């Protein structure tokens, strides 16, 4: 039930007639609105850390009168804010690269088991303060055709989100297994969960359930939107099931054409 928007033009037609031309500009108007919202969101996301940074910078000329403990706090906060901006800019670049990408997903094999080992090491570092019990259940013979950097970004965004949005000492399970000839990925946590009313919009750019909380974790609000784009580029779709207070499961599968496993005994694919 989208309200249609039309643009009208009236032109003379012959001696005694007028011609009315109506053009449906609904989609164009929507796209323009999305573009405006996007620019407004990016500006807002950058302005907040910049305001904090410049506020702290003003205290620096006075540094000799400031207690060292306070100064340390100032530097640490400045570092956090600049990391936040860096993170945002990096994720924006990833998004625009995916959108502009003409790379074909069938051209290269990705070494997913190796990639999972690298992500597991990063997850363990990130997990130092949270102390979750994280289990990686990876089929070391299972891989796919795809775009290395994009898949890495999708897997790690989902795994790191599970770490961020699960209260300390939680349970996180990462699975990479063959299911019905398809490579299947899932990450399950027993964390915060997401209310149903947010689920529909959760993969939109900059959409967050709890803005303040997500910012504290360093989140830009772009992670799930990156995952969605990556999966659509690989003809796949993100499935989410979640219960508030119980936890969430994020999963997706790659078609059998993209899946490579010794049990499938496939020959070279030609696409
Ligand atoms: P962010 O950078 O804020 O983490 P994302 O796009 O990755 O952005 O996620 C959007 C929002 O979805 C998060 O702000 C958080 O509220 C919610 N979310 C994502 N993953 C989980 C999860 N595993 N458990 C609970 N909430 C989650």
From TrEMBL:
Q: What is its main location?
A: membrane
- Uppermost EC category: transferase
Catalytic activity of the protein:
ATP + protein L-histidine = ADP + protein N-phospho-L-histidine
Keywords linked to the UniProt accession: ATP-binding, Cell membrane, Kinase, Membrane, Nucleotide-binding, Phosphate transport, Phosphoprotein, Transferase, Transmembrane, Transmembrane helix, Transport, Two-component regulatory system
| Cellular localization per UniProt | Cell membrane
User: EC number(s) for this protein?
Assistant: 2.7.13.3
UniProt keyword Kinase, yes or no: yes
Q: Which residues form the Histidine kinase domain?
A: 41-258
Any one GO molecular-function label of the UniProt entry: kinase activity
Q: What does this protein do?
A: Member of the two-component regulatory system PhoR/PhoB involved in the phosphate regulon genes expression. PhoR may function as a membrane-associated protein kinase that phosphorylates PhoB in response to environmental signals.
| UniProt name for this protein | Phosphate regulon sensor protein PhoR
Biological classification of the source: Bacteria, Pseudomonadati, Pseudomonadota, Gammaproteobacteria, Alteromonadales
> What's the name of its gene?
phoR
């Amino acid at each position: 039930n989208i309200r249609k928007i039309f643009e009208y033009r009236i032109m003379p037609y012959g001696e005694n007639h007028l011609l009315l031309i109506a053009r449906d500009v609904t989609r164009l108007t929507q796209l323009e609105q999305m573009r405006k919202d996007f620019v407004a969101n990016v500006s807002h996301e950058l302005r907040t850390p910049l305001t904090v940074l410049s506020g702290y910078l003003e205290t620096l000329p006075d540094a000799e009168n400031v207690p060292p403990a306070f100064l340390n706090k100032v530097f640490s906060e400045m570092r956090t804010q600049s990391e936040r901006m860096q993170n945002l800019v990096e994720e924006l670049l990833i998004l625009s690269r995916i959108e502009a990408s003409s790379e074909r997903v069938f051209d290269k094999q990705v070494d997913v088991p190796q990639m999972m080992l690298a992500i597991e090491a990063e997850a363990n570092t990130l997990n130092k303060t949270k102390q979750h019990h994280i289990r990686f259940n990876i089929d070391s013979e299972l891989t796919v055709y795809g775009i290395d950097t994009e898949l890495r970004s999708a897997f790690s965004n989902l795994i790191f989100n599970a770490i961020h949005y699960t209260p300390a000492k939680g349970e996180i399970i990462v699975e990479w297994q063959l299911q019905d000839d398809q490579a299947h990925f899932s990450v399950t946590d027993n964390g915060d969960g997401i209310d149903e009313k947010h689920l529909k919009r959760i993969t939109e750019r900059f959409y967050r359930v709890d803005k303040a909380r997500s910012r504290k974790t360093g989140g830009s609000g772009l992670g799930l939107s990156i995952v969605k784009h990556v999966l659509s580029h690989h003809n796949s779709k993100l499935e989410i099931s979640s219960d508030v207070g119980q936890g969430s499961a994020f999963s997706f599968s790659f078609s059998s054409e993209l899946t490579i496993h010794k049990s499938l005994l496939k020959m070279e694919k030609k696409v």
